[in-house]
């Protein structure tokens, strides 16, 4: 502590100084308010621009014909703009992905939260996070090369690019979301419930299945909804494996039929459409539909999770969102749907041996279960839960192993430092690496000040009320917006309307908008972790709000903010859809010399090599590996900063 | 304490990490009586209670030596089925912990997990248990409402009913009234009085008056050791140990 002789003057400051410092505080607050309100502005802008560009098609063909028309043929002599097959495609892919992902994820979540020893958990959780860190174009690449081939051979069909492939791949991509949110939900069931049940003499499995999982059901539901949001908004991976024929499968349960989703349509056709045409407008119409669907999905998940959080804060007396009776009937309903879907799959598509096997198992279970003691059932259940976990791990290992094994031979000094030759079949990927780094650095330079400012405003300057609710909804909406929608918005607004052109700058801004919610949220979290007593201590000494924030609150929050920033960089580095129409070119021998030139980028380079350049097999894998390493590298740094910081606080 | 004894411990030691939480505790719990465990916070009374139904198994880094027997069978051995053990030894917790289910489902949970499926039979068990726990009249109209809507005292009696529904021999109570108001506490104390006709009750309590009111036998614990154990009247009126006397007369620390 330093005492000066001025201590007296602080209390009797002249009116002028007080006024000045008041003005300073006020203007700082206003700046933060605008950064916070930026999210709302962006959402409004996105909606306005998409509506503006999508509106003509509705006028042209009429809303019912647009939404319910069964033919999507925008380039035919008489163009048809019915998007029903695309909506159905999205729906079917999502259902399939959930049938695949939900049982695996819940099994894995139960294993992680209830069965795994602390040491096992320490290995498993980063593995799940790793699964979340793989860029979607790398998933698509893996799906295109390995998964579709596997499906083609096992079902003896001419091409493996099918609904099944898309569902399995997107299911895999949804796994980490569903696992981590459900695990959280199960782990935060009060310990007393578990003790109460065990003390009555229930087995561990009875406790899990009858008390813990039902108590966590809302959280698990939110997890599944978030997973659905992830699947519906995914573009690159589904585009690479779904076959993309704009048809409704015939019969509707034929999972070996190709299909096309809303997002894939945008990814495929946006690059080839002439600006301002009917077709162009139709694509924006699709974007609006997609945005509405994903926003509803994400907002409902957010609502459930927020309700849970508040319910916990207000104690257990509050009525649950869903009554226990409804929960049970929901569970039963889900069970029946599951069985019906399985039956349809077995009858329609599965090879006979699989059908026989499944029926055999089901039959044994049905007739034998009364003879099983509850210890047998527990052993069986733990076996299945363990199996789910093993499958999740195996998926991760298979993907990583495939890419590392095939990618390593491509890595060389030349590959990393030279521009591509012969359409990427030879030469290196240096401009793509540099371009990706330029893009993400620019994006974070834009998003970080805005995001941190917004978070400071939300946590430090206001009480919960109308305005914060509006801002938070804006952030949630932004967070739930699929990346391809950012891509289209960037194209319509920055590239065309502001006339910036396809350029580094347009890509950076688009990516910045995409990662903004992540930055805001992680900063908010780390600010909230700073104990209130520190703020009170500083304010009680007569410090102003801004002095308190800048000298007491922000410094210990820096590691958390840095973690969020690096996570955002990792996410931005792996994204293809937002930059596809705003910033990238496929091949360029030079680095950009100004912000207004287009660049190469790793994910886009991989996408083009994988889909449009035959015979680039070594370099494809090399690019995938470099991209994977880059993104995982960013994530590992983030995780390191986070754990290091946590240890320091506890230590 | 030469009477018929149901649980006994011999040289029971328990370490939690490095901490010696129970030190050679030897104790005999008489059948169909109420035994109270008293002592200052952190003296190990709850830990001892949780040894009886092996709920300490849930905590990592716990090491136990010595012998605990239920009806002269060792319950520490690896061969003991904890599930059967916990069916015989029920437990009521400090904070009422009804499951987030309906009142009916809370009570039916125990019989269900132990294999009762018949609806009529379940109805009977639920009614009997709720009556026995002296809460039937208050909840019979709303069995399908959420148990979380009950008051704290009602929740605790529901938890007792839930325990009774599996027909245990012993009921462990870990400061069952500490979260309740005096009226709810009086109800639970009356209930304990009646429970000893059919059950052995072991109650941990902070409240010495409560121990004096409800128990037949009392054990005084201090720093992980069982200092003294005997008939409640004797412990409170003629304690043999100076520590015990200091504690019950409030001259402590």
Summarize the SSE layout with pairings.
The complex is a heterodimer of chains A (651) and B (253).
Chain A (H helix, E strand, L loop, with lengths): L6 H5 L3 H47 L1 H6 L3 E2 L6 E2 L2 H32 L2 H16 L2 H20 L7 H25 L3 H10 L3 H12 L1 H17 L2 H6 L20 H8 L8 H36 L10 H25 L3 H17 L5 H34 L5 H5 L2 E2 L4 E2 L2 H32 L4 H15 L2 H15 L6 H25 L3 H9 L4 H30 L2 H4 L21 H11 L4 H34 L1
Antiparallel strand pairs in A: 1-2, 3-4
Helix pairs in contact in A: 2-13, 2-18, 2-19, 2-20, 4-7, 4-10, 4-16, 5-7, 6-7, 6-25, 7-10, 8-9, 10-13, 12-13, 13-19, 16-26, 18-21, 18-23, 19-21, 20-21, 21-23, 22-23, 23-26, 25-26
Chain B lengths: L4 E12 L2 E12 L3 E5 L6 H8 L9 E9 L2 E2 L7 H7 E4 L10 H11 L5 H14 L3 H4 L12 H13 L5 E5 L7 H14 L4 E5 L3 H7 L2 E6 L2 E7 H6 L4 H7 L5
Parallel strand pairs in B: 3-8, 3-9, 6-7, 7-8
Antiparallel strand pairs in B: 1-2, 1-4, 4-5, 9-10
Helix pairs in contact in B: 3-4, 3-6, 4-6, 6-7
Give, in order, the helices and strands of chain A.
Answer: HHHEEHHHHHHHHHHHHHHEEHHHHHHHHH
Shape of chain A: globular
Strand neighbour order, sheet with most strands of chain B = 6-7-8-3-9-10
Biggest interface found? A-B, 29 and 35 residues
What is the averaged pLDDT score of chain A? Answer: 87
CATH architecture of the largest domain in chain A: Orthogonal Bundle
Q: Would you identify the CATH H-level superfamily of the largest domain in chain A?
A: MetI-like
Give the SSE order of chain B as H and E letters: EEEHEEHEHHHHEHEHEEHH
The neighbouring-strand order within the major sheet of chain A is 1-2
Rg of chain A, rounded, reads 27 Å
CATH topology of the largest domain in chain A: MetI-like fold
Shape of chain B: globular
Helix content of chain A: over 70%
């Amino acid at each position: 502590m330093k005492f000066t002789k001025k201590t007296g003057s602080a209390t009797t400051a002249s009116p002028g100084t007080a006024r000045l410092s008041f003005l300073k505080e006020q203007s700082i607050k206003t700046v933060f308010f605008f950064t916070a309100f930026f999210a709302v502005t962006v959402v409004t802008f996105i909606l306005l621009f998409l509506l503006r560009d999508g509106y003509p098609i509705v006028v042209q063909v009429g809303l019912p014909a647009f939404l319910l028309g069964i033919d999507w043929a925008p380039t035919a002599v008489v163009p048809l703009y019915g998007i029903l097959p695309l909506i159905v495609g999205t729906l079917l892919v999502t259902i399939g992905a959930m049938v695949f992902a939900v049982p695996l994820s819940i099994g894995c979540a139960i294993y992680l939260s209830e069965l795994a020893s602390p040491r096992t958990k320490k290995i498993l959780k980063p593995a799940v996070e790793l699964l979340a860190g793989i860029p979607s174009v790398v998933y698509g690449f893996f799906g295109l090369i390995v998964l579709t081939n596997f499906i083609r051979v096992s079902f003896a069909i001419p091409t493996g690019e099918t609904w099944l492939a898309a569902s399995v791949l997107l299911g895999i991509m949804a796994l980490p979301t569903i696992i981590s949110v459900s695990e959280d939900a199960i782990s935060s069931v009060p310990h007393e419930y578990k003790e109460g049940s065990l003390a009555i003499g229930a087995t561990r499995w009875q406790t899990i299945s009858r008390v813990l999982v039902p108590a966590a059901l809302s959280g698990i539901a939110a997890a599944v909804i978030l997973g659905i949001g992830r699947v519906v908004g995914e573009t690159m991976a589904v585009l690479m494996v779904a076959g993309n024929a704009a048809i409704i499968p015939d019969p509707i349960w034929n999972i070996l039929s190709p299909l096309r989703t809303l997002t894939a349509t945008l990814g495929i056709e946006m690059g080839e459409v002439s600006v301002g045409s009917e077709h162009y407008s139709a694509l924006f119409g699709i974007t609006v539909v997609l945005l509405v669907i994903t926003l509803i999905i994400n907002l409902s998940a957010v609502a459930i999770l927020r309700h849970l959080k508040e319910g916990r804060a207000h104690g257990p007396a509050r009525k649950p969102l869903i009554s226990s009776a409804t929960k049970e009937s929901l569970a039963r309903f889900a069970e029946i749907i599951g069985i019906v879907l399985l039956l349809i799959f077995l009858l329609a598509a599965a090879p006979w041996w699989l059908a026989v096997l499944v029926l055999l198992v089901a039959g044994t279970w049905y007739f034998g279960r009364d003879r099983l003691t509850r210890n047998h059932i527990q052993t069986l259940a733990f076996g299945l839960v363990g199996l789910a976990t093993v499958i999740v791990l195996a998926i991760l290992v298979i993907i990583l192993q495939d890419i590392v094994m095939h990618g390593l031979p491509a890595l060389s000094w030349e590959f990393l430092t030279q521009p591509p030759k012969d359409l990427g079949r030879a030469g290196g990927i240096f401009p793509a690496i540099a371009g990706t780094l330029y893009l993400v650095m620019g994006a974070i330079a834009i998003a970080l000040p805005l995001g941190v400012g917004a978070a400071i405003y939300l946590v430090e300057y206001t009480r919960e009320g109308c305005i914060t609710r509006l801002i938070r909804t804006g952030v949630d909406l932004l967070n739930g917006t699929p990346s391809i929608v950012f891509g289209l918005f960037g194209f319509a607004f920055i590239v065309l309307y502001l006339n910036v052109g396809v350029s580094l700058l347009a890509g950076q801004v688009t990516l910045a908008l995409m990662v903004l919610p992540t930055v805001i949220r992680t900063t908010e979290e780390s600010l909230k972790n700073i104990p209130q007593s520190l703020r009170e201590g500083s304010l009680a000494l007569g410090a102003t709000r801004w002095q308190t924030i800048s000298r007491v609150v922000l410094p210990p929050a820096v590691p958390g903010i840095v973690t969020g920033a690096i996570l955002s960089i990792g996410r931005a580095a792996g994204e293809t859809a937002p930059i596809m129409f705003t910033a990238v070119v496929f091949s360029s021998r030079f680095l950009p010399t100004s912000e207004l030139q287009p660049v190469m980028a790793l994910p886009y380079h991989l996408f083009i090599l994988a889909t449009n350049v035959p015979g680039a097999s070594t370099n494809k894998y090399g690019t995938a590996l470099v991209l994977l390493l880059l993104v995982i590298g960013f994530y590992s740094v983030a995780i390191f900063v986070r754990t290091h910081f946590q240890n320091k606080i506890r230590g | 304490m030469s009477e018929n004894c149901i649980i006994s411990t011999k040289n029971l030691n328990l370490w939690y990490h490095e901490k010696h939480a129970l030190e050679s505790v030897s104790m005999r719990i008489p059948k169909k009586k109420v035994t109270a465990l008293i002592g200052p916070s952190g003296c190990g009374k709850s830990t001892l209670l949780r040894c009886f139904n092996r709920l300490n198994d849930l905590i990592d880094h716990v090491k136990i030596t010595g012998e605990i027997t239920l009806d002269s069978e060792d319950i520490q051995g690896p061969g003991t089925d904890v599930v059967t053990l916990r069916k015989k030894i029920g437990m009521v917790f400090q904070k009422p912990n009804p499951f987030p289910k309906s009142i009916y489902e809370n009570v039916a949970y125990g019989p269900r997990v132990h294999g009762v499926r018949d609806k009529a039979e379940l109805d009977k068990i639920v009614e009997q248990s709720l009556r026995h726990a002296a809460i039937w009249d208050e909840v019979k109209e709303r069995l399908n409402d959420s148990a979380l809507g009950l008051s704290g005292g009602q929740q605790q009696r529901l938890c007792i009913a839930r325990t009774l529904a599996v027909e245990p021999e012993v009921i462990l109570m870990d400061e069952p009234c500490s979260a309740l108001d005096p009226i709810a506490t009086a109800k639970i104390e009356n209930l304990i009085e009646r429970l000893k006709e059919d059950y052995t009750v072991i109650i941990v309590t902070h409240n010495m008056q409560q121990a004096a009111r409800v128990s037949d036998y009392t054990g005084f614990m201090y720093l992980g050791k069982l200092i003294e154990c005997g008939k409640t009247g004797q412990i409170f009126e003629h304690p043999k140990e100076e520590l015990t006397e200091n504690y019950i007369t409030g001259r402590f620390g």
